[in-house]
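One-letter codes give the sequence; backbone shape is given numerically. An example follows:

. . .
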Amino acid sequence: MKKIIAIIVSLAFAVSLCACGGTGNEKTDDNTKTETAAVIEKTEAANDQSQAETTEADTDDPLAEDMAALEGIGDIEVSEGIVYVYVTIPASLANGVTQADIDEKAGETYQSGKLNEDGSITYKMTRKQHQAMLDSTASAFDDACKDMLEDTDTYGITAIDHNDDFTVIKVTMNSDTVGLGASFAVLAFYMYGGMYGIVSGHKVDNITVEFYAPDGSLIQTANSSEAGY
């Protein structure tokens, strides 16, 4: 569960990296993937260190802190104009970015940006730039799914397929049952679909996760709307 939370939290920061990381002429998809992977690694390391340093007298709750960070995802706002798309990142995900940082890095990734009084940042993007941001977000999700596929002992998953907007996710198991690890992964899939909808500007009401046996028969279906997500 800790690794899933680390991946989800890193995706929140990946959106911020997509919007404000790198200089105009240096930003590439490969750089974004590298930055995202680095954030995932740092997040996991921070969680490991936090767990190691926890004592009986320590009242901090790392899991609660991670979940609080996730709440900031829902505060991302996207509005579409005729020519431009405006993406507002809440202060909780802004990571101390200054107006000077925003102005310096404007260019290929976004046209301009404004540091608002509440600490949030509103980026002005062309539709092409916004699509690149969506592509990078989708790529980060796919990389997280690959990690699950590689950890067969934990998840028992052999294939993960999804539609373009991550609202329907089909998971193939290595047996006829859905184990504990795969059950936890459902929460990550809900977050992937929900976050993609937020970043795209089209929030969704439901994410469907379907589990299939090796022979292709449906084992069970989970819906985020029924779970309160």
Summary: The first strand starts at residue 77 and ends at 80. Helices lie at 2-20, 29-53, 62-71, 99-105, 127-150, 152-155, 180-200, 224-227.
